[in-house]
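EI: anyone free to look at a 276-residue chain?
SC: sure, send it
EI:
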Amino acid sequence: MSDLRIHYNEEMVGAAHPTKEDTLNRLVLAGHNPDGGCRLRPGWIRGFRTRYKDSTGFYVGAGELAVGGGLRCLDRERGVGHGQSSGMAQPVFLYVDPEAAGGAEPPGLNEENLIFSPAAPVWSAAGQFWRHPSEEAWRWAETSALVDGANQAVAFSASLDGRVFWLDSPVEVLSGGTELAAADVDLSPYVPALEGVEARLSVKLTTGAAEDKAGFLRKKGASGWREAGRVDAASGPSAVTEMLIPVDSGARVQYRVESLDVNMWIRLLGFSLGRP
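SC: here you go
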């Protein structure tokens, strides 16, 4: 029955009747437990906003997630080390491990339940949540951060919902590009390699040519291009544009220019996780 309201031809029957269906509470019980508490959807998670702490790690804000029909809660912001030693610049993903040794007793969580890992999350159809690719109990908190090649946490500012990131020091990812055909720009050292992620880019074009020429960007493999500006030596030998460009599953975008007389520089300003 998709319409759970009481209909004109039904009896008004309450809970625990020995032989008849409870019609009075049928609608409310679709979204609530008998004690009045909200029924949590599988995979429910919110909070855990991540922000820069220092070179060793990040702060993780209060949050909660549904586990086994109940809630596990981080009651306040905690400092968490990034735990990376590979010497590679890379994004790291925040996971919550409800079963971690040293973690808080249910229904609590503490910093021992929080882990940063470079392994990108995968979707669990059975659990209806994102998880670590090999540690099935680790739930992705749907937020991310960055570690540089010196194993230092990268400073950034985050939006209130923890899904948009602005680097304190933008990174140059293309210098003087002149490719006429589609050429890749690899953002994977800085941007999570997930579909739905968008890179915020500052694009600069320069030229010495007299004729008006343009530069273009797109998600790698996309069918259409987005114009990044037009330049000509007489009226505008340089132009700077900010653009939000989706990345592919390898965290790549592509660029091209209309003429060898046009040069393109790209700086990464930050990225947005979007909604998984």
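EI: The chain is about 0% helix and 45% strand.
SC: 👍
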